[in-house]
Design goal:
This protein has 241 residues and is an alpha/beta fold. It is 27% helix and 21% strand. About 2% of the residues have low confidence. It binds zinc ion. Zinc ion binds next to loops.
């Protein structure tokens, strides 16, 4: 058996297996595993890693761990250099795990391209994320450890509004939101439509009090800037995005 000394940054501690949550520890291993596998074996998905050094030299995930190595792992937040998976320069397009319906609505509210279905299975999520180069958002660490996942994030909070704030900070999206741009129901684009064109679809009070309407190009859902719109703006103001 071999040993290595591991140091991790504080933002990664909550990802470690319960019972071994410490910034510094000795790790025992056999053979010469790739460092990516060692990091995931202690509980940290590769998508959460910003930088790794071995014996004070920056390395990539393919590095084979040697007996006696001193390993330092930084989370994305605390890394000095850009993320190993370098997603921050790319367009933020998301796919969400199937327990995150409310977060999907918030991200669509903000105008971000967000795929969500409550019946996606794990292999399907991984395939779509990989093929479409989408960022996988989940509370399931094991899902992020799949080798096909390049871009992902493990949500710390269990509260949808707080999760949206986490995503905005993690992917540097402040100032990039486009409210009233995407359908909350299906992720399609919404565009203006004349009142006359949809008059027969409106309830009497909506017909009487509103003049400006929008329609989803994909599912034909109709939107107008009523009380739900004010509610949405209040939510966005609270998120300070
Ligand atoms: Zn729609």
């Amino acid at each position: 058996m071999h040993t290595t000394i591991v140091h991790i940054s504080e933002d990664l501690i909550d990802l470690l297996h319960p019972g071994c949550r410490s910034i510094d520890f000795v790790y025992t291993f056999s053979g010469n595993p790739a460092i990516k596998h060692l990091i995931e074996a202690i509980g940290i998905p590769h998508t959460e890693v910003g930088q790794v050094e071995v014996n004070d030299i920056p390395i990539d995930f393919k590095y084979k761990v040697q007996n006696g190595d001193h390993i330092k792992v930084w989370g994305v937040k605390n890394a000095n250099i850009s993320n190993i998976t370098t997603e921050t320069d790319k367009e933020a397009r998301f796919i969400l795990d199937n327990h995150l319906g409310k977060l999907a609505a918030y991200l669509r509210m903000l105008g971000f391209d967000t795929l969500y279905q409550n019946n996606y299975q794990d292999p399907e999520l991984a395939i779509i994320a990989s093929k479409q180069n989408r960022i996988l958002l989940t509370r399931d660490r094991r899902l992020l450890m799949r080798s096909t996942i390049n871009r992902g994030y493990w949500l710390r909070s269990q509260h949808p509004q707080q999760q949206a704030i986490e995503v905005i900070k993690r992917f540097k999206l402040i100032g990039k939101s486009k409210p009233f741009h995407r359908c909350l129901r299906c992720n399609g684009f919404i565009i203006p439509i004349s009142k006359e064109a949809i008059l027969d679809k409106l309830l009497p009070l909506t017909r009487r009090y509103y003049e400006e309407f929008y329609i989803c190009q994909s599912c034909n859902q109709i939107y107008w800037k009523g009380s739900h719109y004010e509610h949405m703006l209040n939510i966005l103001r609270n998120m300070e995005v």
